[in-house]
């Protein structure tokens, strides 16, 4: 049995499940054995690819650095009513508290232990949020930092979010407890103890990522502590995890940890439902470690999607929107069922991680709205919308000097609440992209067209494209520097539809452009390149 499980891990280096199954079938002749292995593959693998969203909801929002109390309110007043399926929250566990720089956002990626008090709130507030979001059909996904603890230079004392004592010098974290036996330094073969060369998979997994104390996840004891932490959250009602820094952990160690996770709490989820797992692996090509080593364990973040979409909408390197006719696997991305996609994330929007100048963010709002709409209209992947805070961006020679700045805060460093303005936007530096009309309405579009095929593609061989989703929705983009005036086959039933980009349907009236679809499914679109939003989207529920 053990050796079988080991073989399974080795064989599942393929991206797609059919391939995995056939490899297994070829190498194991016994019939009952085949059935067992098939079950094991589907049970341990596929189930964790399911985001477990409720009511046919299809998009997740990352409420980066939000307080638990604000997320709970947002679930009830906005996310539930507008069809968002879930929230990725910032790390809930105890983390280091830093003075210089003062309270950077990234202090939360330096765990001190697994007590549940953080910059976003305490355990009671966390529990209240999980309950209230679940009650309105919105899932919570936890950002789990399990590769490491704080930086080796993190000192000693009680400068931690729950006030627990720890010593980075002695590698002593008594609340878990972890001691120096539980870290990887003996395995790391670099002079500095840090990862020095991403071309060497051993050091990427066994050495310190930017000086962060690297956990020995091959130890049963360490796996147990990590699984206990995750299980506590599952029992509280979370639907799954964004697992941080997976490139830096061995797939076999992750398989062992995921295998220990409880089923989801059946107060809110069906019996036997597995936690959704999506793993952060930045793979833009050119390194020995690829996303393929992780796709059998759960979904994986597709960073190529974010990087390429930015270049396309910016029209850099001769890229054109018309080239996206084969968007998805056709562009060398991982298979659809394995991917989590996004236009930007909390790292690359400020030059961390796979950040590059091509990444589109709220700072380039016109192109950003188009790119997010493209992502939400397209069937590829589980989609994640970013929701940011503003900071004093100050770029010198391509590097943002203020890329460390934390969320809107009071003088003592505590995070400010998110105030909602009368026009439904957010105040106090919270950007709330997920509330922008164009983005909110495209989340609804994605729910309405769920399960429908990509259809009725049209392009002008430049940057004007259109596509539909069966007979449920249609979207048209003009990213050229000239006007667009075309008649297209939408595949939609005849009638008058309200464009959900320039406005929306309110009761029986439309606050934006109206689109007339004839009995033959054809409709006329005029989109000026100078429009505030040079794209148009209609769907079954926007019919007047
Ligand atoms: C500094 C020096 C090191 C030195 C160390 C000694 O730079 O050379 O060895 O001190 O102690 C911060 C600082 C970094 C500092 C480190 C440790 O920026 O300068 O090292 O802390 O004190 C976030 C930030 C990092 C931050 C980290 C921990 O992005 O800047 O480091 O949090 O606070 C790769 C990975 C990928 C990763 C991405 C950023 O493959 O997994 O880099 N992305 C995830 C998260 C990301 C987070 C981490 C991983 C780490 O999305 O937000 O890093 O949990 O591509
Ligand atoms: Ca590691």
User: Could you say which structural class the secondary elements and strand pairing correspond to?
Assistant: alpha/beta
- Identify low-pLDDT runs: 1-45
Question: Could you give the distance between the termini?
Answer: 60 Å
Main sheet: strands, sense, barrel? 8 strands, parallel, barrel
Commentary on this structure:
- With 544 residues, the chain is an alpha/beta fold.
- 24% of the residues lie in helices and 18% in strands.
- It is built from eleven helices and 24 strands.
- The protein has helices spanning 2-11, 17-27, 31-45, 68-79, 123-135, 201-206, 220-236, 251-259, 303-314, 365-377, 437-448; strands at residues 59-63, 86-89, 139-144, 148-151, 156-157, 166-167, 212-214, 240-243, 276-279, 299-301, 339-341, 382-387, 395-396, 399-400, 454-459, 464-469, 473-478, 484-489, 495-498, 505-506, 509-510, 514-517, 522-527, 535-539.
- It has an eight-stranded parallel β-barrel, surrounded by six helices. It has a four-stranded antiparallel beta sheet with strand order 15-16-17-24, with helices on one face. Strands 4-7 form a two-stranded antiparallel ribbon.
- A hairpin with a 2-residue loop joins β20 and β21 (509-510).
- The longest helix has 17 residues, at 220-236.
- It is globular.
- The chain starts with a helix and ends in a 5-residue tail after the last strand.
- The model is unreliable at 1-45 (pLDDT under 50).
- Ligand QV4 binds next to loops.
- It comes from Scomber scombrus.
- It holds the Pfam family Alpha-amylase.
- Residues 58-446 form the Glycosyl hydrolase family 13 catalytic domain.
């Amino acid at each position: 049995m053990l050796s079988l499980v080991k073989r399974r891990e080795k064989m599942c280096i393929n991206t797609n499940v059919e391939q995995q199954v056939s490899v297994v079938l070829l190498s194991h002749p016994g019939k009952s054995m085949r059935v067992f292995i098939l079950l094991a593959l589907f049970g341990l693998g596929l189930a964790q690819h399911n985001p477990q969203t409720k009511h046919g909801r299809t998009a997740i929002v990352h409420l980066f650095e939000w307080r638990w109390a604000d997320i709970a309110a947002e679930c009830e007043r906005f996310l539930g009513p507008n069809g968002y399926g879930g929230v990725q929250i910032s790390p809930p566990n105890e983390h280091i508290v830093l003075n210089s720089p003062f309270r950077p956002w990234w202090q939360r990626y330096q765990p001190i232990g697994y007590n549940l008090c953080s910059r976003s709130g305490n355990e009671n507030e966390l529990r209240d949020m999980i309950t209230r979001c679940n009650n309105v059909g919105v899932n919570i996904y936890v950002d789990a930092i399990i590769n490491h603890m704080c930086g080796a230079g993190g000192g000693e004392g009680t400068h931690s979010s729950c006030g627990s004592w720890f010593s980075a010098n002695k590698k002593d974290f008594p609340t878990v407890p972890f001691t120096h036996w539980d870290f990887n330094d003996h395995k790391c073969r670099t002079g500095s103890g840090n990862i020095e060369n991403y071309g060497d998979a051993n050091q990427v997994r066994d050495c310190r990522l930017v000086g962060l104390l690297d956990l020995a996840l091959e130890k049963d004891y360490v796996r147990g502590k990590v699984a206990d932490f995750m299980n506590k959250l599952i029992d509280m009602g979370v639907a799954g995890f964004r697992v941080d820094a997976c490139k830096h952990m061995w797939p076999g160690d992750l398989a062992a940890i995921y295998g220990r996770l409880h089923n989801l709490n059946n107060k809110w989820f069906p019996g036997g439902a597995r936690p959704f797992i999506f793993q952060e692996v930045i793979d833009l090509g050119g390194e020995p470690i690829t996303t393929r080593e992780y796709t059998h364990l759960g979904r994986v973040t597709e960073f190529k999607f974010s990087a390429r979409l930015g270049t396309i909408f910016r029209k850099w390197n001769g890229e054109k929107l018309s080239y996206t006719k084969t968007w998805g696997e056709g562009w060398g991305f991982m298979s659809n069922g394995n991917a989590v996609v996004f236009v930007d994330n909390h790292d690359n929007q400020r030059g961390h991680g796979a950040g590059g100048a091509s990444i589109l963010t709220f700072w380039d709002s016109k192109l950003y709205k188009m790119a997010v709409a493209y992502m939400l209209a397209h069937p590829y992947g589980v989609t994640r919308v970013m929701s940011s805070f503003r900071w004093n961006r100050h770029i010198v020679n391509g590097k943002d000097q203020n890329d460390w700045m934390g969320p809107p805060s009071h003088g003592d460093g505590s995070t400010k609440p998110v105030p909602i303005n009368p026009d439904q936007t957010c105040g106090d530096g919270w950007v709330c992209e997920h509330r922008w009309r164009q983005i909110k309405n495209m989340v609804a579009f994605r729910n309405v067209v769920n399960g429908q095929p990509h259809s009725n593609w049209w392009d002008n061989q430049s940057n004007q494209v259109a596509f539909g989703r069966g007979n449920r929705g249609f979207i048209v983009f003009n990213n050229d520097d000239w006007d667009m005036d075309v008649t297209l086959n939408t595949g939609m039933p005849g009638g008058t539809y309200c464009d959900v980009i320039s406005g929306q349907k309110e009761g029986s009236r439309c606050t934006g452009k109206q689109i007339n679809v004839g009995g033959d499914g054809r409709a006329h679109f005029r989109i000026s390149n100078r429009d505030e939003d040079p794209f148009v989207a209609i769907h079954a529920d926007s019919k007047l």
